[in-house]
Write a sequence for this structure.
């Protein structure tokens, strides 16, 4: 998966606050969505999302990145 695709997946995960919801939108299992987030973590060198089994939230780095990612997706 490309970094740009991972960025788009991240934006949708941030908007929906749900990996499962994004997986359904993409008609895939949760695993590719998780891999996209992991790829982005590697690219950024930090975790953009804190997640537990019940919740997820953007980290400070994720909140900064979401503005950049959402803006570049509109170009």
């Amino acid at each position: 998966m490309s970094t740009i695709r991972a960025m788009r997946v991240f934006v949708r995960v941030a908007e929906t606050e749900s990996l499962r919801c994004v997986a359904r939108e993409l008609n895939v299992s949760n695993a590719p969505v998780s891999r996209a987030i992991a790829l982005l973590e590697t690219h950024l060198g930090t975790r953009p999302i804190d997640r537990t089994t019940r919740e997820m939230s953007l980290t400070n780095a994720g909140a900064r990145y979401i503005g950049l990612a959402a803006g570049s997706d509109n170009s």
